[in-house]
Design a protein that fits this description.
Length: about 250
């Protein structure tokens, strides 16, 4: 497991309720968790609150109670990149313009923003496609643009919401390997990856720790450490044992 010496984000007893017209639904129930420099997978049944939890870690939504403390470099304003569950590229912008957009929004001059965008597009293997529009890209390429866009803001924390679930198995597999490469090689400043998934094998393949959530309202049901060296071999007996264990916890 990656050393968990220092927490980057601390979830301190957070809960979330959505309510309208007097009815309220509890989605997240008293979750406490420290996220360090690690690859963390969050696993849970559909509708349990995974995306809600991720949006709160991203700071785009507030918990109803409890608090989230960031220990990132820019204390207070978390430095996060977000890969959304459904691809959301802007159709009338090219791949390069899509990746440069959040940089420009942060006040980086256009030229410099495009230079940075170009670097991250080439990191995900799309240097030849910077002038293509989303419609002209395959599903896997679009998801690469999404990943490049999340990385381009040079976040310390990369949040990914089921980023591989819409892709065919081969594309998903090569993107998983690329993502692990980018993270392990240190070419980006990302220290923590938080990956939401409902795929047990993906979680065991990618993560240092797997946080298993209960059905809604989401509570932490178990945390499993994956102490297998990388690259991991899905056919090894150790791998199979962990997969069985995690399946036991989710079912
Ligand atoms: N903005 C919102 N307003 C009201 N209810 C919401 C809102 N966002 C999410 N919910 C509710 O919260 C619950 C959890 O939703 P969430 O999207 O977090 O689940 P999830 O675990 O990501 O599901 P999936 O695996 O299908 O992506 C659902 O019941 C959903 O209806
Ligand atoms: Mg979701």
């Amino acid at each position: 497991m990656a050393e968990l010496v220092e927490a980057l984000v601390i979830l301190d007893n957070i809960s979330k309720e959505y309510g309208s017209r007097g009815k309220s639904v509890r989605v997240i129930d008293n979750i406490s968790l420290e996220i360090g420099s690690e690859f963390l997978a969050i696993l849970g049944p559909s509708g349990c609150g995974k995306s809600t939890l991720l949006r709160m870690i991203a700071g785009v939504e507030k918990p109803s109670s409890g608090r989230i403390v960031y220990k990132t470099h820019d204390k207070g304003s978390p430095s996060v990149g977000f890969v959304f569950q459904s691809p959301n590229l802007i159709p009338w912008l090219t791949a390069l313009e899509n990746v440069a957009l959040p940089l420009k929004a942060r006040g980086i001059p256009a030229r410099e923003a495009e230079e940075i965008a170009r670097r991250y597009l080439s990191l995900v293997g799309l240097q030849e496609f910077e002038n293509f529009y989303p419609d002209e890209l395959s599903g896997g390429m679009k998801q690469r643009v999404n990943i490049a866009r999340a990385l381009s803001v040079e976040p310390e924390i990369l949040l990914m919401d089921e980023p591989f679930s819409h892709l065919d198995p081969l594309t998903a597999e090569s993107l998983r390997a690329e993502l692990l490469d980018i993270w392990l090689s240190g070419v980006s400043p990302v220290k923590a990856v938080v990956l939401v998934t409902h795929d047990v094998i993906e979680a065991v393949y990618m993560a240092d720790r797997i946080v298993i959530l209960t059905p809604r309202p989401a509570r932490i049901s178990k945390i499993v450490s994956v102490n297998l060296p990388r690259p991991r071999n899905r056919l090894s007996p150790e791998f199979g044992k962990l997969v069985d264990l995690v399946y036991e916890y989710v079912s």
